[in-house]
Amino acid sequence: MSRWNTRLRELAKDGHFKQGLDNYRQMLRHGESPNAFTFPFVLKSCAALSLSFLGQQLHSHVLKTGCQSEPFVQTSLISMYCKCSFMDNARDLFEENPQSRNLTVCYNSLIAGYSLNSQISNAISLFCGMRRDGVSFNAITMLGLVPVCTFSSQLGFGMSLHCCIVKSGLITDLSVANCLLTMYVRCGPPDVARKLFDEVPVKELITWNAMISGYCQNGHCTQVLDMYNEMNSCGIYPDPITLVGVLSSCAHLGAHRIGCEVDKRIHITGLSSNRFLRNALVNMYARCGNLVKARSIFDRMVDRNLISWTAIICGYGMHGQGETSVQLFDEMLESGIQPDGAAFVGVLSACSHAGLTYKGLAYFNEMRNYKLQPGPEHYSCVVDLLGRAGRLNEALELIRSMPIKPDGAVWGALLGACKIYKNIDIAELAFEKVIELEPTNIGYYVLLSNIYSEAEYLEGIQRVRVMMRERNLKKEPGCSYVELKGKVHLFLADDRSHIQAEEIYRILKELEDLVKELGNSNKNDVGVHSEKLAIAFGLLNTGLDTDVIVIKNLRVCSDCHRFIKSVSKIVYRQFIVRDSTRFHHFKNGVCSCKDYW
């Protein structure tokens, strides 16, 4: 019997779960009877393959052999039911055996199961009962519990767990410390996570990855790059998990130079075949303005998955090349890959940016064919789509007919459409709704103020300013930057701090004079916005055959948009500007957004 058990243990350990179950059947056919050492391995294989029916058969084998009172058999059964999402069966099994109530391993299995199945309140309640009954906890308990604290509402409980961990001495367990780090980075103040990180005596790769992944998932992209540099300085070599987080942050920030350095590192370290990294590279290059490179990597991939297709579809959509996005989406369907909600967001957004109204509406209606229910993110794309076409009333009716509550992005899309078509009545309705949902989002106040400004409605402008003052809201400073020869050159509005400021303003003055000659002078005295300075800097320091790429943190204003269009025609250069919503490709006096953004 020991020979069979040894073989089953080896197969389960190596992840050969199907072979393990086949081996168990052979054992039975040879007339061997399973024992308490057999069941943990076959139940693990069954759980890994989510074979609930087979798991129930194994449960009956356990009962027939009288092994149900063995702690590790009991634990394996609970774990199997949890991984198959049969939580009621798992709880019944736990409750039926009085011995379970005294065993830490049984509590651990059920807590981990509740956590796995997102039954947070049950996990917390069970742990409280465990403490009440005087059953000791260990590192495994905490590794099952801490991950449930992923939202700020659970942070208080997470901090209580932190106290238990410190008092019990488990803080020295690296896995537990990393778990706490992830919790604080995800739902706590970043400085608390950083303080805990600094207190970890021996920082292994998993510790660095916990910080980098946590920062990345919560949009702290600058901190990701700082952590990556610090990690390199400490001589810690990154793995694919590290590099995916870094590339995602580069994509978010538009940090093209660092992204290129990571790309080189991937090739040097022999990680080029890693699909997760290639998907991240496609996304990074597309979002940093290098669509040609993104497409080149995508075309060389032989193992494309849904994420690969979604990355390139979204990339073309951001750049206003909706026709190509649509073509790629249809190719993906033909290849047999089923789209998910994110893929539909990508193609709907692409249709919106390119003005492909009917195509976008057709895709929206097709979602249910793939058993997908449209979410707020899909409705906001369709509202934007209808808004671009001037069908504001249809867009409003669509929002009112939504089976789910519209979020801020949905009403914000309608408000943006009202700016283009100067519809103050619907704009005021959309604004009223959106600030109920996002009262501190300064962008919506600015958008309504701009609508009033273009309509020369001074009373409305004053009203918005009073609201902003009463709510202590201040507009985020606009900034733009250009990467040149490995260095980032950052500009603010009316900025004169750059070493080439005198030459930049001289070129800018010449360009403004030429724009005036074309009859395209600015309507408003808005000062010198950051994107104008970045454009002038780019022209000053790059050759005629080089595209000037500018990254801006806010939406490009109408006056700067007109100015850059005119300059592209005057100097025969292409300017690629990424603002907070999309890419603008300015060439020969035309923008890829077709003046709708």
Query: Which strand order do you get reading across the main beta sheet?
Result: 2-1-3-4-5-6
Q: How would you state the average pLDDT, rounded? A: 91
* Shape assignment: elongated
Helix and strand content put the structural class at: mainly alpha
Our estimate of the beta-strand percent is under 5%
Characterize the main sheet.
6 strands, mixed
Helix content: 55-70%
Q: How many individual helices?
A: 31
Strand tally, please? 6
Rg estimate, integer Å? 29 Å
State the end-to-end CA separation.
71 Å
Taking pLDDT < 50 over at least 5 consecutive residues as the criterion, the unreliable ranges are none
Q: What labels describe this entry?
A:
597 residues; mainly alpha; six-stranded mixed beta sheet; 6 strands; 65% helix; 5% strand; elongated
Q: Short description, anyone?
A:
Helices cover 65% and strands 5% of the residues. Strand 5 and strand 6 form a beta hairpin. The relative contact order is 0.04.
